[in-house]
Each structure stands twice: as structure tokens, then as C-alpha cells.
Design goal:
23% of the residues lie in helices and 28% in strands. It has two helices and four strands. Strands 1, 2, 3 and 4 form a four-stranded antiparallel β-sheet that branches. Strand 1 and strand 2 form a beta hairpin. The chain is flat, with a radius of gyration of 20 Å. The termini are far apart.
């Protein structure tokens, strides 16, 4: 699949090796998820221009995934029908603004409005 995305065979082989190593560690150490993060994301980008991409994450919360039945490792998350206890969810009281820049060529300086936004 990576070859169809413009990657070289060497890059695809390195990616496959990394995936195999990660899978092996997860299996050998019997790792399971302990926390799930949920949020509402709003993304901003000028159409057909990836120079500046901005995302704003709100309603961020972390949900405990510990102490429930894994059903022989066929289910990785808790049953959504069961109510969460008060201590199983932590709500993050702030929003997260992420600015991604794709600068190349002679223009390696971010637009002024981006710098102003970062400094505000």
C-alpha cells in the first residue's frame, strides 16, 4: 500500500518492520489500552493549499479503560452502554490549538498572521 502512496520500496520495508516490531512488543508484554481520549475537532485550511493547517480540539476528555471484561481480547474498549463512574473520566477544561506549517523552497517564514496568532 505504501508503494501506491509514492514511497520507495525501502521506506515500505522499514515501515513494515516497524509495524511488526510494535505488534511483537504489544503481544509479548500483553499490553492493553488503559486510557481513551475523546475530543471534538474543528479543522481550518485554505482549499487546495496545505501551507497552513489549523485544528482546534475542544471537549477533551480522558476515559479510563481499566477494570472491565476484555472478552478474551476480542474487545479493546469498555461497553458504551454502561455508565462511567465519576472517577473514570477526566475532562480537560481547555481547548488545544494546533498549527501545522508546510514551508518549503524560498519561503521558509510563516505568514505574519500565523506568527501574530501564535504570539497572542
Amino acid at each position: 500500500m505504501m508503494n501506491t502512496m509514492g514511497s520507495t520500496q525501502s521506506e515500505a520495508d522499514e515501515w513494515e518492520l516497524l509495524v511488526r516490531q510494535c505488534t511483537q512488543v504489544i503481544s509479548s508484554k500483553q499490553l492493553v489500552p488503559t486510557m481513551r481520549t475523546q475530543y471534538m475537532r474543528t479543522a481550518f485550511q485554505i482549499p487546495f493549499d496545505a501551507t497552513v493547517r489549523i485544528s482546534l480540539d475542544t471537549n477533551l476528555c480522558m476515559i479510563s479503560e481499566r477494570g472491565y471484561d476484555l472478552k478474551n481480547n476480542t474487545v479493546w474498549h469498555r461497553d458504551s452502554e454502561k455508565a462511567l463512574a465519576y472517577n473514570e473520566i477526566t475532562r480537560f477544561p481547555h481547548a488545544i490549538l494546533e498549527i501545522k506549517l508546510e514551508l518549503s523552497g524560498e519561503n521558509m517564514t510563516p505568514p505574519k498572521w500565523v506568527t501574530d496568532l501564535q504570539n497572542s
